[in-house]
Structures are given as C-alpha cells and as structure tokens.
Amino acid sequence: MTTNSGAKAPERRSVQRREELSPWSELAPWAGRMQDFFEQMWSPVMGGSDFAPGGELRETDDAFMLELDVPGVDKRDITIEFSGRRLSVRGTKTTEKEGKGTLRHTTRTSGSFAYEAILPVAVDDKAVTASLSDGVLVVTMPKAGEAKTTHIEIS
Hints:
Blueprint: H1 31-42, E1 55-59, E2 63-69, E3 78-83, E4 86-93, E5 111-118, E6 129-133, E7 136-142
Antiparallel strand pairs: 1-2, 2-7, 3-4, 4-5, 6-7
C-alpha cells in the first residue's frame, strides 16, 4: 500500500445558503423604500400634507360622488377645485384644545390635508355640489352630457 504524503487534500469551499443565491437578496434593503415610493406615487393624497382623510370615490351612471371624512374641519377651511378632469380637495384642521398640564401624547390629527383624483370622464363643473355634515364632506359631480352612461335594452 502506498501513501501519497505530498498530495494536498481538496479544499472545502463554504456552501452558500439558498437565500444567498437569490438574485433578489441584494434588493431586500430597498424593499421598504420602494414600498414608500409607490404608495406616494399612487396614493390619492398628494405631497405636502400632514394627514390623509379617509374617503371613497364612487361612480354611478350619471355622476361621481366623493365622501371624505374630515371631522372637526370647518367648511371655511376646505378648498375644492377642478382643473380639467382633476379634482383637488385641500384643507386645514386645527386643534385648539388647551388643557392643564403638559401634553405627553396625542392621537388627534391636525395640520393640512389634500386629496386629488383624476376622473376618467369629464364632469359638468357648473353642476358640482358640496356639503359638509357630521364631519363628512360630500362632493357630487354630475358627468358631462357626452360622458353619461346610457343603457340600451335588447329587443
């Protein structure tokens, strides 16, 4: 029996874990940043706001209706504008609650807010109405004559 004392044993290489082999693993640190970016890009709230009011934009055959939750906001502090098919609602909510002692924590929202949406069809901007009741802003936007949906019965 001969031994080869001069030969080296093969070197062991470290084995990479499966997740290290993924081409996406290098992007993991950016995931949170990308999520924030996309939420800002496609959120109905546009930049420069301190908070985002909750709400719904609905479409019927002849109108759009926006309902925004703005409790504690006075109607004098809300601006509603149209530019083409773009609806813009901006406002300010102030909290003037003065109390004794040092405020340590609050969950009340205050500051400016903005809501913008691009409507898929034109509206009759002369017939738009808005009302504010019980902290809910309702903006009703009738569709322009050529944009209204008509249903055809099949005979």
